Predict the 3D structure of the following.
Amino acid sequence: MSWILLIAVVAAVVWGISAYNGLIQLKGDTLNAWKQIDVQLKRRHDLIPNLVNAVKGAMDFERDTLEAVIQARNQAVKIQAETLPTGGVKKLAAAEATLGAALSRLNVVVERYPQLKATANIGQLQEELTSTENRVAFARQLYNDTATSYNVRQQQFPWTLIAGMAKAEIVELWEITDEQERAVPKVDLSSKPKA
Amino acid sequence: MSGANLFEQQRTNRRRSAVLVAIFLLFFAWIGFGGDYILYLSTMPAAAPAARGGSRTPYHHTFPWFGLGTTLLGIGMAWYGWRNGAKQVLWASGAWELVQASKPDEQQLVNVVEEMAIASGIPKPKVWIVPDKDPNAFATGTDERHAHIAVTEGLLTTLNRDELQAVIGHELAHIKNYDVKLMTLLAALVGVLALISEGTWRFLGRGGGRVAGRSSGGGRKGGGGLVVVLLVLWLISVLLAPIVSRLLALAVSRKREFLADASSAQFTRNPAALAAALRKIEDAAAPTAAIHRGCAHLCIADPLGRRINARQGFVADVFGTHPPMAVRIARLKAMAYQYEKTGVMPGTA
């Protein structure tokens, strides 16, 4: 009888160790995915002053648009500094959405200035901006996927017993709050390569 | 066909690939150790060894030299292929490494690769450009940290940004699923099997006749029938080895393309872009001259433009390296439709 008890205890301990390690691994993955978002947001924030400087001269009368971008950017930088996966993600997501909206308005304005677009520098900056927007989106996607499996795992039955020991906490997902960002995706029917 | 559920598709594809690799390895072991067993039976000492007389004791094959030999050779070749396969593939296609982008096209390519590396959560692979006007792309390497992506110049000029992104996503999926590793290992094993088969032909031409003659002429009672049956089976499998192993490699490749398409859609959340890219690659019908037959299974579309790859059914499944473009596009369009309707990428919710 005591043998069976012993085996049961050993099995429980072995399972506990692997479950604990599994949770720690997921936690690490989640933090890593968050760091990836952080890096890409910083890249986005660093790129904006360059873009603004490049177009400032040619668009003196579009001050409002430029101001809005700079405002939104500074706001986002401030919020980013104090955000962790366990708190404030919603606020940061909202700030970044505002910045995204301001940027797309700026992009529309830039499209109206063919002579501005013709300078190679702007074309390059626009490519960088597109790339950065994509990076932010993909980093967010990776974070949300990782964070979801982390959240689900630590709430499921046997793992929830270990969760306290592994200091597992529910993390916030980066959800799209802005209706604008949720809106219709753009459809490109032209077969020309985009500049 | 319910090709819409991405994760289910991934699971079945993984399982099928594992089965194929297992068959491959069992076949390999049978050739080595089966040969040993036949030799063991056929050189079994007769009841009265003295009857043979003479100073020369007959050879009795008790230790599985061949099995160990083929296994060691296989491991050695696989290891060699593992270490140098990627370099050889890239060298054979004449690709050059894109270290510092100098043109807008190249900058865009580097950006797109970095974006997809983030989406798939693997380190950024090295980027190579193949000087060829036909649009095509392939991935090679051993693992996530030693991976390479090569695209042709034609791909950069033909596709727009979203389509290029989808193609790069497809290639990164091959890296992430360890397809590139699997294909390199399979290619190495195919090479070893071809070598063994060739060796057996030579052996039959010379010494083989003597062993067979001795076993039948020895006038032994038991086991003779079994030896003959085994020998015939063994010879058939050895002689057909290169063909069979090649078929296995091709079948693995064909299934993996669907998986990579699905993963690309998962990364970009834009299956329609990959469908459009595949359509454009298909329409540029010219074969990709820079890519050789040995690397065909690595490419996103068959570089040789073989007609068999446009067909469905058992024969095409066995002999084709790629699934029919029309089927791939149809599956992607089904995913795009489902994504648009439900707002959820099939399989990711």
In short: The interface with chain A takes residues 104, 107-108, 111-112, 114-116, 118-119, 121, 157-162, 165, 267, 269, 280, 348 of chain B (CB under 8 Å). The domain at 78-192+242-342 of chain B is CATH 3.30.2010.10 (Zincin-like). The mean pLDDT of chain B is 75. The longest strand of chain B covers residues 147-152.
